[in-house]
Amino acid sequence: MAVVTESAPRRSVRSFVIRAGRMTEAQQRALDEVLPRYRVTSAALRDDTAQVFPRRAPLYLEIGTGNGDNILALAARMPAVDVLASEVHPPGVGHTVHEAERRGLANLRIYDGDALELLAALPRESLDAVFIFFPDPWPKKRHHKRRLVQSELLDLLATRLKRHGRARFASDDADYALQVREALAADPRWLNSAGPLAFAPRPRERVLTRFEQRAIRDGRPVFDLCWMRAV
What we know:
By secondary structure, the protein is of the alpha/beta class.
C-alpha cells in the first residue's frame, strides 16, 4: 500500500469553527496525559502508517466524533477493526481519549485537526468505511460553502476508500441532506445503496447521540445516506 504525499485541498474557509466549551478536570487530564498515546498526526501517517496501525485490519474513520459516543461504541463492539476518530473540539477529544483509556480500547486512535488534511495524508484505498454523523449544517445560505460534504471531500474519499468501501452520512437538516444526495446522484464514482434518489434506513448500530435526541425531541426528521465507491 503506497503512502501518498499530496496536500489537502485548500478551502478559503474551513468547515469548522473551534468554539469555547466547558472543560472538565477529567477531560483536561486526558488531554495532558492520555492524548499523546492516542493522537495520530498527518506527518506520522505520511511517514509510516504501519506504526500507527501496525496490524492488518479493516480501518474505519468517523469525521466529527463529538464526545466520541459512536466511535467508542464501535471500537468496543468490533475489536478486530481499527477505528480512527477525527474531532477538533478539545472537550470532545478529551472525553474520547478519557473513555478510550477507561475502557482499555487498543484499536482506537484520534486525529484532532482538519479532516481534509487527515484524508490527504492517508494512503490510497486504506479505508473500509467512513462515517459523518450530524456535521455542522451551516444552515444560512451564505455559509453553505463551509459545509464539510462538498466536492473536495468526495474527491478525497474516492481515492481513500477501498473499492466498494462505504460512507454513511446523517443529518437533521433537510437542505444539507438533499444537497449531499444530489451530489452523489450526479457523480458516477458513487453508488447510493438505497437507490439514486433515496435515503437509507437508520443503521441500528449507530448510537443515539445528544444531537439526534435533540432532533427527535424537536420533531425534525433525520436523513441517512449510505453510498459506496463504485469505481
